[in-house]
Specification:
about 240 residues; alpha/beta; Cobalt-precorrin-4 Transmethylase, domain 1; Methyltransferase, Cobalt-precorrin-4 Transmethylase, Domain 2; five-stranded parallel β-sheet; binds S-adenosylmethionine
Length: about 240
């Protein structure tokens, strides 16, 4: 009884690994996360060209974008039970996730539930290219060198926690939602990033709609941040 969780990379289907494509092609049942009923799954859109839709069932599992932990837990239990039942029926199952499964992924909730209640299921995790490595490649930039430190920060939570990380790192990767970037840009100026620090912002990395802009911090403060969607990344380098 096997379940493979597959990191589908940032968006370009050519960035899946050979092993990921092999497991997708062999799957009887594919599970893929989405935030709302009827909303297309991004992970599915990345993997679709490798799925044999005449022999594979595809199930969208809902992971609502809410902060109520009790409601979320009910949903995680329901989703993991659906997957467990399918694995127990003898099917070859695959769970798709964007980027890499170890980084802010819905997979973590499924995995925890399966470990608690279905530890008979053999789980394989296939890594994917995380969004920020695809971002660095598209921007043709290095994230850190030598003794520099790198922080990864979700931009949409506690600003004090963000301030603490920003103050102690040489480069910061901000994830999760470009609509929050304006408030973290303020924090950069307060925590040792000079006016000439280089900030790169991207949205929809590695797909046709990609937006990518590099600016100095002083210029960014006076213009509208170009990222207005959930699928956005901002990288700030203290020393240019
Ligand atoms: C729930 S996290 C998933 C991260 C993913 N597991 C990874 O390895 O990159 C979603 C966040 O990842 C970032 N992200 C993922 N793919 C992206 C892309 N193609 N372009 C820009 N940002 C992306 C955005 O910051 C988005 O809000």
């Amino acid at each position: 009884m096997k379940l493979s969780c597959i990191g589908c990379g940032p968006g370009d289907p050519d960035l899946l690994t050979i092993k990921a494509v092999d497991r997708i092609k062999k799957a009887d049942a594919i599970f893929t996360p989405t935030s709302k009923e009827g909303k297309p799954s991004i992970a599915l859109s990345i993997a679709r060209k490798y799925i044999n839709e005449s022999t594979t069932t595809i199930t969208n599992l809902i992971f609502p974008m809410i902060k109520d932990k009790d409601l979320l837990k009910v949903q995680w239990k329901t989703n993991s039970q659906i997957i467990a039942d399918t694995v127990h029926s003898g099917k070859n199952c695959v769970y798709l996730t964007v980027g890499d499964p170890s980084l802010y992924s819905t997979w973590n909730y499924i995995h925890n539930e399966l470990k608690k209640k279905h530890d008979d299921i053999d789980i394989e995790i296939i890594p994917g290219i995380p969004s920020f490595f695809a971002f660095a490649a598209q921007a043709k930039m290095s994230l850190v060198e030598g003794d520099q430190t790198l922080g990864i920060v979700p931009a949409c939570y506690d600003l004090d926690k963000i301030r603490h990380t920003v103050a102690s790192c040489d480069s910061i990767i901000f994830l999760k939602d470009g609509r929050y970037f304006d408030s973290v840009i303020e924090i950069l100026s307060e925590t040792g990033f000079s006016d000439n620090s280089v900030i790169t912002i991207a949205q929809d990395v590695s797909v046709d709609e990609e937006i990518l802009e590099t600016k100095k911090l002083k210029d960014l403060r006076n213009t509208k941040n170009p990222a207005g969607k959930y699928f956005s990344i901002m990288v700030a380098r203290k020393n240019g």
